[in-house]
Design goal:
Mean pLDDT: 86
Order of helices and strands: EHEEHEHEEHEEHEHEEHHHHHEEEH
Oligomer: single chain
Strand order of the largest sheet: 6-5-14-13-12
Length: about 475
């Protein structure tokens, strides 16, 4: 397929004054309370966020008024023939390259991993390179393995020598050196200042003379098979170690800014500086057995991290969560071990992982392969109405974190023109983009109020050509009763 250098999904935050954005959102996280999904319905209009109310009136742009309403439990179900009549012509385009996809009714889901037959499908079993839609596997395995209230921890303990402090990485990439009140890219980050304060309180009257950086929590290579080292300065990833600041970003406020090649040492030097030490006081090593605790700080809950992962497509966060799955399952916390355990966790929960192979937890590797059937099954389980004993509510953060077409995350600048524009504010989906790889997998409500899941994958053609076509297919589902 000639995959070559990857592009990577990007997250574009904050608009400039005057930029037109769609403010209609779809909300899908209240099914556990209502017995079904919930949607926000609003007029299909644009609002200029940079204009005053008076100026909007002058431009004759009505302000949308969202209405929270439950999706109809008896909404008509599209027929396979009806969907085929509108999707087959779009899916048969040679411009899509090697294409596969499914459309699924999540209300027919019998529980995690027990889907009914797709309403529409094309080569549903074909394993293709998923790009960042591979994060759906990691997110689902995380939520099925860990407690949603679990938090990632970074610890400081006493070293083997007097005055020595060991900074022990626990796999929290959200740890930040930014002061309280300053915001980076992660929600509710653990703060290095809080850890320093804890250490200073415990060691009051004792001089701290050195810092040891401990990254022994994980094993194996720091870059996965199928990764390009150029992705580090390119802003897609940093060496995967259990200690870093702000996902290894050189500028913690830039989602896709350049990353460091030495994330653990950088974190140790920032820690040392806050303790009044120079960079030369930092070495790498391991904490003594039964070392005296000096302090610890925690990330946001796992459920919040998964939501952020879906919205921002953060590769480093995905790799961290995959290793937590491996550790929870008492397996090797390496790329190979984490990838194996993500698939094992899904299989144990009833998902058919036949044909799936992951070399990492983020989908950044060109060696990853996933059939669209599996992506559809995961999303259908996450979006299915709650039922006794099914446990689908544990997967809800996958759906609530999906980017909104034309609204936020990696879809903020998609669905902008032509037939695809009908999907703005209606489609929510996870993107996947590498060189020669385009994928889109998510949920959409059709004109009859029926919630549908879709997974669309293309290999072998430029994303510049394919992505608008995938957007059009998803938008077509939003306009189609297809009975």
């Amino acid at each position: 397929m000639g995959l070559g250098r990857r592009i990577g999904d990007t997250l574009r935050l904050p608009t400039k004054p005057g930029r037109i954005v769609l403010v209609v959102l779809v909300v899908l996280a209240l099914a556990a309370a209502t017995g079904g999904a919930v949607a926000v319905q609003a007029p299909n209009v644009l609002s200029d966020l940079g204009l005053t109310r008076a100026a909007r009136a002058e431009k004759d742009l009505p302000t949308p008024v969202p209405q929270l309403t439950g999706l109809r439990a008896d909404a008509p179900l599209p027929s396979s023939a009806g969907l085929g009549s509108v999707l087959d012509p779009l899916a048969s385009s040679n411009a899509l390259g090697d294409f596969a996809g499914v459309v699924v009714d999540p209300a027919a889901q019998a529980g995690a991993g027990s889907p009914t037959a797709p309403l529409w499908q094309q080569s549903p079993e074909e394993p293709l390179v998923p790009g960042s839609t591979g994060k759906l596997l990691t997110a689902a395995a995380t939520l099925l393995t860990l407690d949603p209230t679990d938090r990632l921890v970074t610890r400081a303990v006493a070293g083997a020598e007097p005055g020595q402090v060991v900074l022990v990485g626990g796999g929290d990439p959200t740890l930040t050196a930014l002061p309280e009140g300053s915001t980076g890219t992660y929600p509710e980050p653990a703060r290095l200042d809080d850890l320093v304060a804890a250490v200073q309180k415990v060691t009051a009257g004792q001089k701290v003379t050195s810092v040891v950086v401990d990254t022994s929590a994980w094993t194996g290579p720091v870059l996965a098979p199928g990764w390009d080292p150029a992705d580090i300065p390119g802003g897609n990833v940093t060496p995967i170690v259990p200690l870093m600041l702000d996902g290894g970003r050189l500028d913690p406020t830039l989602q896709d800014g350049p990353r460091t090649t030495t994330p653990a040492v950088d974190a140790g030097e920032a820690f040392a500086k806050k303790l009044g030490l120079s960079a030369s006081a930092v070495t790498e090593g391991t904490a003594p057995a039964n070392a005296k605790p000096l302090g610890q700080v925690y990330s946001a809950p796992v459920s919040s991290l998964v939501e952020h992962l879906m919205t921002s497509s953060d590769n480093v966060l995905a790799e961290t969560l995959a290793r937590d799955v491996a550790l929870s399952r008492k397996a090797d916390p390496s790329f190979a071990g984490a990838s194996e355990q993500v698939l094992a966790a899904l299989s144990q929960s009833g998902f058919d992982v036949t044909g799936a192979h992951m070399a990492d937890g983020s989908g950044l590797s060109t060696e990853d392969r996933v059939p669209p059937r599996l992506l559809g099954a995961i999303l259908a389980a996450a979006a299915a109405p709650a039922g006794p004993g099914e446990g689908t509510e544990f997967l809800r953060p996958i759906v609530s974190g999906l980017p909104v077409a034309g609204g936020d995350g990696t879809l903020d600048d998609r669905f902008a023109t032509g037939s695809a524009s009908a999907g703005r504010g209606v489609v929510r989906a996870k993107t996947g983009t590498l060189t020669g790889v385009s994928a889109l997998a998510g949920v959409v409500t059709d004109v009859d109020g029926r919630l549908l899941v879709f997974a669309l994958m293309s290999n072998g053609q430029s994303p510049a050509t394919v992505r608008p076509r995938l957007d059009t297919i998803a938008a077509t589902l939003s306009r189609c009763g297809c009975r």
